[in-house]
Design a protein that fits this description.
Largest sheet: 4 strands, antiparallel
Number of helices: 15
Order of helices and strands: HHHHHEEEEHHEEEEHHHHHHHH
Number of strands: 8
Strand content: 5-15%
Structural class: alpha+beta
């Protein structure tokens, strides 16, 4: 009986495949278990806490570009949402700019003008073959080398372009502006309904209506009318040069502009090829038939070619949008916070040689710090002046602790605030 059972397992194909699959799954589960146990042991040994409790800990760092209020006293969870909103902001702005530029370049690639066609060709070939990271660094470096505050480029006596960013007026919304905004939304909805109605009427009667002009007038002049009826509930706070910086207004940082230009120009080159391939996919007979009917070239492209090309353009266009959103993570390369920590850690490394020459009492202090951290894993990291951004890097943690102990032994600054004020300017 047992012999037949083993023979069935070994020689029966179905039973053998089940046995092999069970062994593979069991070995994989064992591997995951051993990895988990080893990771938990290593974390416990180094005094590193796991889980999501850190989300409720004070962040201890600032974020220069943000859409919602944030300070170093806020939690990591709020920092996560700030970063999420920043990603959405750069993604939306980049997709809009890349789409406009990509469509223009894609259409110019098919132009009969030799000069424009070849300029677009050079742009596409050059941009697609240069890594996006290099392009971001290039645009960011150009922005950093713009004139200083007092030599700023003045645009329309309102905007000021400097190496610190683009200073512009900031809007101040007053009571009643929400009605203006709702009028704009209703004007868009009404224009869409009106377009459908006029299209049906055109199909029935054959009479062509200036739909674009009518809808443009509705969308533009309706909110303007309500704006004046509500007493102009919008003002602007313009930037004014005072001392060594502008006061008032708003500023678009060079980090954001460099990222926006880099991602948009790079992605637009790929979108232009997508648009060009979509236009080429439309049969030449469509263009010839429309020209035979006497349609203008602009109408042929807008009403005949582009609508048919969209079915080819949209799927790869979605992939380009996703690539742009993914590449927005490269902001960390030009982040002022990341550069500041790099400079600081370099300073730490330079001073470690001096630290090694100090007395054995230093080692005892470091042991006390490590012991305290194991006993208080969830404590605010800035109690030891250890930024949360560096906690995952053990060597930098050690360097930070060593330098902090060394610095306290050589100076009279005994509190974190005293140390922080001087460290900010390094």
């Amino acid at each position: 009986m047992q012999t037949n059972f083993f023979r069935k397992i070994i020689f029966d194909e179905k039973s053998r495949s089940l046995l092999i699959q069970t062994l593979v799954i069991g070995l994989f589960a064992l591997f995951i278990y051993l990895i988990t146990q080893q990771t938990a042991y290593n974390l416990e040994k180094r005094g590193i806490s796991s889980g999501f409790d850190f989300l409720n800990i004070s962040a201890g760092y600032d974020i220069s570009i943000r859409l919602i209020p944030f300070s170093s006293e806020d939690t990591h969870l709020r920092a996560y949402f700030v970063g999420l909103l920043n990603t959405l902001m750069i993604a939306v702005c980049g997709c809009i700019l890349a789409t406009i530029l990509g469509f223009l370049v894609g259409i110019i690639r098919l132009s009969s003008n030799w000069l424009f066609r070849n300029i677009a060709y050079v742009y596409v070939e050059f941009t697609r073959n240069v890594p996006v990271l290099l392009q971001i660094i290039l645009y960011y470096s150009i922005l950093l080398n713009l004139p200083k505050i007092k030599q700023a480029f003045v645009i329309f006596d309102t905007f000021y372009l400097t190496n610190r960013g683009l200073f512009s007026p900031s809007p101040i919304f007053k009571e009643g502006f929400s009605i203006v905004l709702w009028s704009f939304i209703f004007a868009i909805i009404f224009s869409i309904l009106l377009k459908g109605f006029l299209k049906k009427k055109q199909e029935q009667t054959g009479k062509q209506y200036p739909i674009f002009l009518i809808n443009s007038a509705i969308i533009i002049f309706t909110p303007i009318l309500f704006f004046y009826l509500m007493g102009m509930p919008l003002e602007f706070d313009s930037p004014v040069l005072k001392g060594f910086n502008f006061k008032g207004g708003m500023v678009i940082r060079p980090e954001f502009l460099g990222m926006l230009f880099g991602l948009s120009i790079y992605t637009a080159a790929f979108i232009s090829e997508t648009v060009r391939s979509g236009i080429i996919s439309v049969s030449k007979g469509q263009r010839e038939a429309s020209q035979a009917l006497g349609l203008k070239s602009s109408f042929v492209m807008r009403l005949i070619i582009i609508p048919q090309a969209l079915r080819v353009i949209i799927p790869p266009l979605t992939s380009q949008y996703l690539n742009l959103t993914k590449n927005s993570s490269l902001y960390i390369v030009q982040s002022p916070t990341s550069k500041r920590w790099v400079y600081r850690t370099k300073g730490i490394d330079l001073r470690l040689g001096e630290w090694k020459k100090d007395t054995p009492q230093m080692l005892q202090k470091i042991r006390e710090i490590k012991s305290w951290q194991k006993q208080n894993p969830n404590n605010n990291p800035k109690d030891f002046f250890l930024p949360e951004a560096l906690q995952r890097y053990t060597s930098l943690e050690d360097a930070y602790r060593k330098y902090w102990v060394y610095y306290k032994s050589k100076t009279k600054e005994k509190t974190w605030n005293d140390r922080h004020n001087k460290w900010k300017h390094m």
